Amino acid sequence: MTDTLIIRGGRVIDPANGIDKVADLVVSGGKVAGLDTEAPAGAQVVEAEGAIVTPGLIDLHTHVYWGGTSLGVDPDQYALKSACTTLVDAGSAGPGNYPGFAKHIIEPAYSRVLAYIHVSFAGIYAFGDGMRVGESDNMRLLAAREAATVARANPDTVIGIKVRIGRHASGASGIMPLDVALDVADDTGLPLMVHIDEPPPSYGEVVSRLRKGDVLTHCFRPFPNAPMHGDGRVRDEVRAARERGVLFDIGHGQGSFAWKSARAMLAEGFRPDVISSDVHAFCINGPAHDNLRVMDKFRALGWTLPEVVEAASIAPARAIRRDDLGHLGKGATGDVSVFREVSGDFALDDVRGEVVQHDSRLEPVGIAVDGVWKAA
Ligand SMILES: [Zn+2]
Predict the structure, then answer these.
(1) What are the structural domains, with CATH classification, of the chain?
(2) pLDDT band at residue 39, thresholds of 50, 70 and 90?
(3) Second label for 140, Cα 20 to 30 Å away, from 23, 152, 229, 371?
(4) Residue 61 CA, ligand 1 centroid: distance in Å
């Protein structure tokens, strides 16, 4: 056995490098060696004929602090179910409990877990069945200095700052927690990811404060606080934010993806930058399921396979500023996703119960993280 892995005969889709062809992908020493390149005898071979081989998919919005928060799911089970190699946790942990997240989840996980650290001290601490207390509601919990300190102490895993804003998450504090989080992002030089739920504050107010490189998640949420007006026109503040370089992320979750919003936005030519699941304990069995299923929803909206792969690989890699991830260029980190397109008649439900039928779906085959293969 060598430390070389050959994923043989699959359709390799690498949007960052403009590649879409059948090839053998070789990963050696934990790095991408190339396509159809020479490999030593005794290399591990994964047969991928008829399957799709892509850069390791990155789910930009997950909740994987299993056991430490009530919304967490097990990262490695989820990685295999979704064929994602990198799971970016979106603020499950804050500075008060980040060390536990790092030691008990990130370190032992086979999958690559990175994090937006929450600006609220204990992260999303009370999101359960029949128990929902917004962690941004009580301003006393907002811990700017502590969040900045813990972010600086964990540069390998903290890739950004998180805050949740809306009637449910920030309640009477309104938009104030966003200003605290922006201050932390500015001080640390990290991008911010902002959740938006029902108003107040309004979608326009929230997105207007974001800077180039910041991420608005739940971007195609339903009314109230949809990204478009009732007649389908995209809000002016949304277009202005895109002009500035603000990134728009799906973050499907339990309440944040509506067919109606998606159809209206795409009809106006406004596409999301990133497709992510916002997987957590209360949406993993539907309606979000996993990020392959969210990619299926965009395929049902007319996107091609390379387009959905791009929005779930190189686009999130750029959002988290990791140029070694999200592509299969020589020397890139050896993260690879393998999945199949299976024909059938599949029901795809949104958060409002609208169902769209589609004639195929993506199913996981396996993933390699740092060149180490695991079958789904
Ligand atoms: Zn979330």
Answers:
(1) 4-54+330-375 (2.30.40.10), 56-319 (3.20.20.140)
(2) confident
(3) 152
(4) 6
Q: Ligand 1 centre from 91 Cα, in Å? A: 7
Strand runs labelled E in the chain: 4-14, 19-28, 31-35, 44-47, 52-55, 57-62, 84-90, 112-118, 127-128, 131-132, 158-165, 192-196, 215-217, 247-249, 336-349, 355-369, 372-375
- Specify the DSSP class assigned to residue 136: T
Collapsing DSSP to helix, strand or coil, 118 comes out as: strand
Residue 324 sits at the vertex; the CA angle it makes with 320 and 325, to the nearest 5 degrees, is 60
Alpha carbon of 29 to ligand 1 centroid (Å): 34
How remote is the CA of residue 210 from the centroid of ligand 1, in Å?
18
Q: 145: CA distance to ligand 1 center in Å?
A: 23
Calculate how far, in angstroms, residue 62's C-alpha sits from the geometric centre of ligand 1. Answer: 6
CA of 163 to the centre of ligand 1 (A): 10
> In which element (H, E) is residue 160 found?
strand 158-165
Token look-up 């919005």 returns 61
Ligand 1 midpoint to CA 147 (Å): 18
Task: Please count the residues of the chain.
Answer: 376
Quick one: pLDDT band at residue 36, thresholds 50, 70, 90?
Answer: very high
Quick one: tokens of 364? 């996981």
- Ligand 1 center to residue 204 CA distance, Å? 20
Ligand 1 centroid to residue 154 C-alpha, Å: 21
- State pLDDT tens for residues 207-240: 999 999 999 999 999 999 999 999 999 999 999 9
113 sits in the region (left: phi over 0; alpha: psi -120 to 50; else beta) called beta
- Could you tell me the distance, in angstroms and rounded to a whole number, from the CA of residue 328 to the centre of ligand 1? 28
Q: How many angstroms is it from 64 CA to the middle of ligand 1?
A: 10
Distance 287 CA to ligand 1 centre (A): 14
* Ligand 1 centroid to residue 191 C-alpha, Å: 16
What does the pLDDT average to over 159-164? 98
Task: Tell me the average pLDDT across 186-203.
Answer: 98
- Over the chain, what is the mean pLDDT? 97
Which residue in 163, 128, 167 sits closest to 143, CA to CA? 163
